[in-house]
Amino acid sequence: MTSVSKSAVNRRSLIKMSAAGGLAAAAASPRFMSDAFARQATPVVANGPAKNIIFYLGDGMGQAHRDAGQLTQVGPYTTLAMDSLPIVGMVGTNSVTPDGAVLVTDSAAAATAFATGHKSFNGAIGVDADGNTVTNLVELAKAAGKSVGLVTTSQVTDASPAAFAAHVEDRDEQSEIARQYIEEAEVDVILGGGEDRWLPEGSAGAFPDNPAEDPEEQSSSDKGDLIARAKELGYEYVSDAAGLEAATGPKLLGLFANEEMFQQRPEGEGDIYDPVVTLNQMVTKAIEILSQNPNGFLLFVEEEATDEFSHSNNATYVIKGMQYLEEAVQTGLDFAESNPDTLVLVTADHECGGLTLESPDDEDESGDGATISAEDGPFPVAGTGYTFFMDWTTSGHTGVRVPLTATGPGSEKLAGYYENTHIFTALVEAFGLELPADLPTEITPGVPEPAASPVAQ
Ligand SMILES: [Zn+2]
């Protein structure tokens, strides 16, 4: 990867080279001589457009999160399913404002980049840096006759899924996002947490207001009863495991918690991750329903615990989130094996926690153990007698690149070193669709310099 300079990678070059046919074209252009681009010749990639795309996001999941998942689940010399995919990319994650680039993104700006190809500001949902509504992947997939699903362990209206299907300037407008999902985007399958955002104050729903585990949780929709509205629009509504199991779609809304499907706190301070249904159960049902569409589907899947428990520096539940995500990725890969016209990718919006992995030693060199960035551990390395520690440097997001792995038709365009906006281009082209007219021709037009004070949210 070292021979690819950042300046050499822009969207058009990647498209041109991919279209020209892999390694032979790469060899003709010395700028692209690198192992990463040589992967384009890997024969495991199927020909033709992708009928289906399954986009897995480990929110806040950097390389150390993936390595911690590997060590705890399969040990040092076996690869997780999510890391076994033939295509590997490294994704730049910064966001922008109309005045300049911001080193550290939030989930909203990052997901807007994936879903629209536009770098935008932190908090932006499907709008560009100037606040203009821009075309998203869900709209393109729907126009092509495909079905669309959003699945997350966060609120279904949280920033990452929201940017795929809604347009608002403030990620906190979650009830408006819910309304747009059902009334405008017509998302077919919506599964996750966040029931409070769908019901007005005083209407508790399936999950009681002000529960002991978080007394602040309370129904708060400012758009009326959106669950009733969804039912009017033909959605089947479920809120427990039996309901999910029995659901047949083709339009399905499942809400399985007031807010996130866990309680994000430091270890031993009320942290809970015991969901009503697992991410894998939701993904399994989503694929079952969406795959009935002969035109194919776009499914976005998010594990949120990898980010939120990193904010709490709670390594125990970051590890659990990695297990849940791995299980759900395996389900997508099993589907792709029998449906090879399926592109599967696994990436993150940004890193969270400044996490690294360390050997056990006598003292925590990062402090007295009482600080937020203290070491966590020891955790057992699967299949060995060894242990390791997870060490944090922040309770916020960081500006480092995140890995991406992928397989299936069109995934070769996701090899290499690029900005998050490139993922949008690659996925639109993998579907065999036209790039929208509002796509910018440069990665970050007019915003080359980092701001003086990067903000971590
Ligand atoms: Zn976060």
SSE map:
Elements (H helix, E strand, L loop, with lengths): L10 H10 L2 H6 L6 H4 L13 E7 L4 H11 L13 E6 L2 E3 L2 E3 L4 H10 L20 H7 L3 E9 L3 H7 L8 H12 L3 E5 L32 H7 L3 E3 L2 H6 L5 E4 L23 H12 L6 E7 L1 H7 L3 H24 L3 E6 L3 E2 L3 E3 L16 E6 L6 E5 L5 E2 L3 E6 L8 E4 L1 H10 L27
The chain binds zinc ion (ZN).
The site of zinc ion has 6 residues, from α12.
Q: Which structural traits does this protein have?
A:
single chain, 457 residues, alpha/beta, Alkaline Phosphatase, subunit A, ten-stranded mixed sheet, three-stranded antiparallel sheet, 14 helices, globular, binds zinc ion
Can you give a write-up of this model?
Helix content is 29%, strand content 18%. It is an alpha/beta fold and 457 residues long. It has a single domain, classed as Alkaline Phosphatase, subunit A, CATH 3.40.720. A ten-stranded mixed sheet has the order 7-8-6-5-9-1-10-16-2-17, with helices on both faces. A three-stranded antiparallel sheet has the order 12-14-13, covered by helices on one side. It has a two-stranded antiparallel ribbon with strand order 3-4. Helix 10 links the parallel strand 7 and strand 8. The longest helix has 24 residues. It starts with 10 loop residues before the first helix and ends in a 27-residue tail after the last helix. The structure holds zinc ion. The site of zinc ion has 6 residues, from helix 12.
Gist?
By secondary structure, the chain is an alpha/beta fold.
Q: Quick one: overall form?
A: globular
End-to-end CA span: 30 Å
CATH topology title: Alkaline Phosphatase, subunit A
* CATH domain class name: Alpha Beta
